[in-house]
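lol ok so funny story. i was supposed to be doing the assay writeup but got distracted and ended up predicting the structure for this chain instead. priorities right. anyway since i did it might as well share w the group, maybe its usefull for someone
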Amino acid sequence: MSDVTRTPRLAVLGAPSRYVQGSGATRALGAELTHLGHIGPVFLLAGPTVRSILEEVWAETFAASTIEYTVRTFGEECSDREIDAGVAEAKASGAAVIVGAGGGKCLDTARAIAAALDLPVVNCPSLASSDAPCSALSVVYSDDGNFDRYVFYKKNPDLVLVDTDLVARAPVRYLVSGMGDALATWFEARTVIEAHSPNQIHGGTTLAAGALARLCFETLLTDGVAALRAVESGVVTPALEHIVEANTLLSGLGFESGGLAIAHSVHNGLTTAPATHGAMHGEKVAFGLLVQLVVEGRPQDEIDTVLEFSRSVGLPVTLADVGLVAPDRATLELVATRSVEEGETAHHEPFEVTAEMIYAGVVAADAIGRG
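and the output, tada:
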């Protein structure tokens, strides 16, 4: 890490212009767009399941606000091919605003399309599975699911609208994955603060971002299990509302304006192993957090707190949990090498991070998780 990275920098906090959350929030989408001055036409990129559930609601809310719209069904990956296809279709439709409705990769793609066309973007997550919706970046993958790069944008979404009815209807694994992503938020932000490293928008970390990251962790411990039970029962409760906010808003602002460290780099490293492709983003981040705590030499009671929470909601704590059953040394060395490539957030630590350190941390974290 160069000395330039360690020099004092301006503190920067990024956030969406407006955040709306609650039961039935989709019905307010047209009114919220109008409130922000977005009168269409709308190009709506939607996951296939979300489209089947919400098509009639979109017709009603856009008609009530006299907004014209076009819908494209999202493919499986936020890849250059999917982004380019969306750009071409949105441009042909004469879109004035891009709306993404679906999971994290759908929203990442919507943000990429909007940036390519220099249009405002609205994110409507159907899941609380990641902290992507509020951010000004996309994670781009290859068509076969390998991590490719982060793409940063000049502004955050104009609106993030979360319908918690959809979250309650989704498989519980998505909520749990979101908790895994959110679980790392405070620990990575803390590291960035201690190291005086840059956050994800290339600034210093504000007190507000640090406080939001800490609140994210505290909310998970308080309401995580109760929210899990609510989704298992298909109902919206205050605990679920709190966890949706933690997974989406608190973690979103916390990771972007707080910063990332080893946990997310290990996630990126794990994507090099095809056996992990069945594990969700937040699941791999959760295991990456254990690696980070080991590499940083954090106290055992802190590691135990993370382990206890992860087990209570069903997050991965071993390599086998993310698909790597008895991996050979070469596979883990590849994971470690990818985790410390130039530009990776592992280098936000206050010490030099090497592939050898990550390899040892992965092996040790797996042993701790196996108990």
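The longest strand covers residues 97-102. The chain has two domains: 19-169, 172-370.
back to the writeup now i swear
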